[in-house]
Design a protein that fits this description.
It comes from Paraburkholderia denitrificans. This is Regulatory protein GemA. Pfam families: GemA. InterPro entries: Phage_Mu_Gp16 (IPR009363). By secondary structure, this protein is mainly alpha-helical. The protein folds into two domains: about 35 residues, no CATH class; about 60 residues, no CATH class. Helices cover about 60% and strands about 0% of the residues. The chain contains five helices and no strands. Helix 1 packs across helix 2 and helix 3 runs parallel beside helix 5. The radius of gyration is 18 Å and the shape is elongated. It starts with a helix and ends with a helix.
Length: about 120
């Protein structure tokens, strides 16, 4: 797809000229439109598996709980990875030490509790 065509679809369906400016809902609308037009979604061959140890599952679960409450706008794994990197400096959940993972878990729990208290 040429860039001009792509930008046109973004403007018509998402209302913005750049995908970076779209919300998750707007991105989903654009993707659904592209699928109806024949676009095929393929996973990348180099896609990394998700960390599946108990602490990583807890971190991911808390992240998704915060997203469900509206506290986190982007529930994607990449957004979680960026949050963890800002907190710990580690590029992936797999690379967290037990102490780092515990710190992230406690931070997310406190955040969740503040949200629940506000409601």
């Amino acid at each position: 797809m040429h860039d001009d065509s792509y930008r046109s679809v973004l403007r018509q369906i998402g209302g913005k000229a750049s995908s970076a400016d779209l919300t998750v809902t707007e991105l989903e609308k654009v993707l659904e439109h592209l699928k109806r037009c024949g676009f095929k979604v393929r996973s990348s061959k180099g896609a990394c598996r998700q960390a599946d140890d108990a602490q990583s599952k807890m971190i991911r679960g808390l992240w998704l709980e915060l997203a469900a409450c509206g506290a986190v706008q982007n529930r994607a794994e990449e957004a979680l990875a960026a949050f963890v990197k800002r907190m710990t400096g580690a590029d992936a959940l797999d690379w967290l030490s037990s102490a780092q993972a515990s710190r992230v878990i406690e931070h997310l729990k406190r955040w969740r509790d503040r949200i629940k208290e506000a409601v």
